[in-house]
Amino acid sequence: MDMREAISRFVRDGDTLVIEGFTHLICFAAAHEIIRQQRRDLTLARLTPDLIYDQLIAAGCAKKLIFSWAGNPGVGSLHGMRRAVEQGEPQPLALEEYSHFGLVARLSAGAAKLPFWPLRDYRGSDLPAVNPLIRSVECPYTKEQLATVPALNPDVTVVHAQRADSNGNAQIWGLYGVQKEAAFAASRVIVVVEEIVPEPVIRADPNRTLIPGFIVDAVVCEPWGAHPSYAQGYYDRDNAFYVGWDAVSREANGLEAWLNEWVYGVGSRAEYVEKLGEDVVARLSAKPRISEGVNYGF
Amino acid sequence: MAVRAARELSDGDVVFVGIGLPNLACNLARATHAPNLVLIYESGAVGAVPDRLPVSIGDPALVTDSLGVASMADIFQFYLQGRRIDVGFLGGAQVDRYGNLNSTVIGPYSKPKVRLPGSGGACEIAVHAARVIVVAPLSPRSFPAEVDFYTSPGQAGKFGTRATLSLPGGGPTRIVTDVGILAPSVEDGELELVAVYPGIDPQAVVGKVGWPLRISGTLEPVPPPSAEELTLLRDVLDPEHLYL
């Protein structure tokens, strides 16, 4: 399936959407297609909104953000998000805030189809005072008071992976983030990969499979679909892009001009990559560092 | 500050590493007195040996040659809440007299003067790590008597002490600043000045915090950074001066 069809069929106005990936494997290609198709009133959830949600928010796709750390890592603020929160531009954005552990726990509960998840956290913190969904429960065995967070069950989760077969059996290596929890928690799952491989390639290394195809609704092959994030073994993080985003996004018209050029101005990720140019592709392409296989025989 | 922070680490410590200066300090310690330091990043890298200075906490160089990669659910539940972490490194826009940290908002939450990134993993690190090293330059603005927002718990404060809250970890034990080191007193957990760097007058430090700062009876000696430490930092670990 191509990205246009996947987003058109599986992402709807008003959905709770998770595009996860902790620094690694953040699927910008899916976000850009969502912007092009002008989805509205989305509730966006992610540990780190990152540039990807800064773009979705600035494009007017979001009404609410669920998060645990909102910044441009090592650089500064997310200006698009701040304009929405502080000035209501292009539209107001409600915030629901956790710590990383809290949001990971919400997705773990969602994946396990439990109503909540207990964690030993938040004592001595103001976070529960500003988020009424952070509550507590008495342990029936030890009587300890534990913090709880409610399950998060997204309408749709987008997972970027290095490779999958055509049924969506997806393999990830390098940092996993909360990709597995986010996928299992969701009603609909879109898997986007750097390459589609034959099923025997997946079966030859089953321990690397993070997401089974039978929970996947759409498989999209989108090389360089995570740029400016990265895919271990395929291409490096474009740190210069992240640093440069600060100046691009500082004023609303700068960010809008960027969206016009790089999102609305291209029809697909393939066009985006072509526009990125050979020099950037060469600069970021991963050097080989091959892992030796293991014996799966018996 | 990177050199002072590095010296707070012991060989063999299992360290939960934050981005920026803590990252630099951990890699300096690993290159000098603590070759067996185990670096764990909240992104999932365990036993990382990055051969370039990571710009982000999820840099691919943290994975290459690491001992293992864990999901974030495992990192927070088994490594951190499971009490396998000796040292957590934290920063914060505000540090108060009991070592409470604020990385959420300056001003009221509903109408902040400055909206900061938020907790990330900071709250749970402050709850669970056996000890926490805080790295922050000293100024009255950054060291108020009480934080505007309690993101991560210190030794005591409006919610009570760590003992009354039954917090499993030790909380902030060392606050490494640009002029000296603060540490909680054994009596009441209030931060006091325990060391100043060469050439710094302890009395001049007192006015730089928002509470009447006590000076410890015996100030620890702090040798200046060695030539080896400085060369490593400037030429090997951060040649592009990302953090220095």
Summarize the structure.
The complex is a heterodimer of chains A (298) and B (244). Chain A has twelve helices and twelve strands. Chain A has 298 residues and is an alpha/beta fold.
What does the model show?
- The complex is a heterodimer of chains A (298) and B (244).
- Chain A is α/β, with parallel strands linked by helices and 298 residues long.
- Chain A folds into two domains: 226 residues, 3-Layer(aba) Sandwich (Glutaconate Coenzyme A-transferase), CATH 3.40.1080; 51 residues, no CATH class.
- In chain A, strands 1, 2, 3, 4, 8, 9, 10, 11 and 12 form a nine-stranded mixed β-sheet that branches. In chain A, strands 5-7-6 form a three-stranded antiparallel β-sheet, with helices on one face.
- In chain A, α2 packs parallel to α3, α3 packs across α4 and α5 packs across α7.
- Chain A is globular, with a radius of gyration of 19 Å.
- The two termini of chain A are 37 Å apart.
- By secondary structure, chain B is of the alpha/beta class.
- Chain B has one domain: 3-Layer(aba) Sandwich (Glutaconate Coenzyme A-transferase).
- Chain B has an eight-stranded mixed β-sheet with strand order 2-1-5-10-11-12-13-14, with helices on both faces. Chain B has a two-stranded antiparallel sheet with strand order 3-4.
- In chain B, α2 packs across α7.
- The longest helix of chain B is centred in the first third of the chain and has 11 residues.
- Chain B is globular and about 50 Å long.
- Chain B starts with a helix and ends in a 7-residue tail after the last helix.
- Chains A and B meet through α4 and α5 of A and α3 and α4 of B.
